[in-house]
Amino acid sequence: MKKVTLGLLALSCLGGIASADAPKDAAEQVTTSARQPARKVPYIPAPENLQAREKFADDAFGVFIHWGIYSMFGQGEWYLQNCGMPATEYAKAADGFYPSKFDAAEWVAAIKDAGAKYITITTRHHDGFSMFKTKESPYNIVEATPFGRDIIGELADECRKQGIGLNLYYSHIDWTRDDYPTGRTGQKTGKDPQKEDWAGYYKFMNNQLTELLTNYGPVGAIWFDGLWDHDQDSIPFDWQLEEQYDLIHKLQPATLVANNHHCEPIEGEDIQLFERDLPGENKAGLSGQAVSQLSLETCQTMNGSWGYRAIDQNYKDTPTLIRLLVGAAGKGANLLLNVGPQPSGEIPAKAREHLKEMGQWLRANGETVYGTRRGDFPAQEWGTSTRKGNKLFVHVFDSSNPTIHVPTPRKVKSAKEFATGKKVKFTRDKKRGGVTLTLGQVPDTIDYIVELITD
Ligand code: H79
Q: Which residue has the higher pLDDT, 26 or 343?
């Protein structure tokens, strides 16, 4: 295995796991660091890539899909590792994978109706099972299941037909292949340590990435996950990201490279990801990293699980999800909201219901979310703000106070209720700066929106 000790870019990012949903062995405070070598050749994003970043930020809302043979066990996507069973036993599930109700057209229609502008789907998660047609391993949906269909291909076609984007999740970890050098996770799956071969595994990944970026039309983003598997190696593990990122950008210059390493962005990445927390917040313990100037995305579960977990019916209600989306937009971040389809191929009914309600809300209020950038100030106890040109949308989640202070540094010219166009009284706050809005008696709503015109 190639080990690099020179030219290390030490990125310190502290992450303590506090979430009840985090893997069991992650209960203690941990330190993670990307510790990857600096690039040899500086990364200069192509013009179409820069454009894609803006389009990505405009899109504001995507739906994440975790689906694989793990869904059949109904215990989340980490089941192979958490259960500690041999990968050979786990793999037997593939023989029974027949999602008789899978319909790409239905998925895409439901997701589009929710107001999401793109889908990010797991093409291969840490279990190592490929959900697409690949020549690189027989352990894939077309060859190893009776279903035999390339669901990534079907989804790609439908996304194109219905006019939404497709991003592809790709795991850096593999708990099944012998050639993947085992890290902090997946130590009990029976891989043969004698057969670890980083060079071989790296080639395998790059060949699969080439398939993904060649066979399915335009790919919005490649969404990596798992770098943290080797963040505590005594000799920093070199994932050879420069060559891998360059390969992606060479195959599709507009494809955004994203990596869920929980650290500050590494050169060559086009967007910055946050897991289970809004940028700058760290309640779940995976997001202590500084917020960069890149376009941002926060992924979050609709209940508490990524892959289908039968016992987890603990869904966030629709107002919470809408405020999450608006709260993300207020910080300049997209929300990537997860669903975990069932073994049948259906999206759970509760998730469908919430998506539908989000769509209803977005059809009325989407103008204050899509195409906006972060607001003029950090989130306030009453809510947040988003900006589009000279419009500042003030989003009031808690309207129990008849007046609120809006600390914008810009001069406010007018204020009106977004829903009705009715004028809203505002006075300049000479002491604190910004303006005070007099809301009066406001109906209890998910998000009371005031539109300010500023200079
Ligand atoms: O795909 C979903 C999850 O399966 C994956 N990312 C999302 C999008 C994910 N896996 N683990 N986590 C998220 C939480 C990370 C836990 C970690 Fe650790 C804590 C990584 C490093 C420290 C636990 C302890 C796992 C490895 C060591």
A: 343
Query: Residue 14's pLDDT band (boundaries 50, 70, 90)?
Result: very low
Report residue 95 as tokens. Answer: 């023989």
Q: Could you read off the pLDDT of 146-190 as tens digits, one per residue?
A: 999 999 999 999 999 999 999 999 999 999 999 999 999 999 999
Q: Which of 197, 276, 235 is nearest to 4 (CA)?
A: 235
Query: For residues 55 and 371, what is the distance between their CA atoms, to the nearest angstrom?
Result: 8
DSSP 195-240: G--HHHHHHHHHHHHHHHHHHSS--SEEEEE-GGGGTT-SSPB---
Cα(23) to centroid(ligand 1), Å: 7
Residue with the two structure tokens 């919005």: 220
Token pair 């080639």 is found at 203
Tell whether the model's pLDDT for residue 70 goes beyond 60: yes
Whether 255 is in the pocket of ligand 1, judged by its Cβ within 6 Å, is no
Average pLDDT, the chain: 93
State whether the beta carbon of 185 lies less than 6 angstroms from ligand 1. Answer: yes
Ligand 1, atom 2: nearest CA belongs to which residue? 306
Query: Residue of the nearest CA to atom 7 in ligand 1?
Result: 306
In degrees and rounded to multiples of 5, residue 37 shows phi and psi of -60, 145
Span 238-291, pLDDT tens digits: 999 999 999 999 999 999 999 999 999 999 999 999 999 999 999 999 998 999
Can you list the domains of the chain with their CATH numbers?
6-373 (3.20.20.80), 375-454 (2.60.40.1180)
Find the DSSP H helices in 331-376. Answer: 349-365
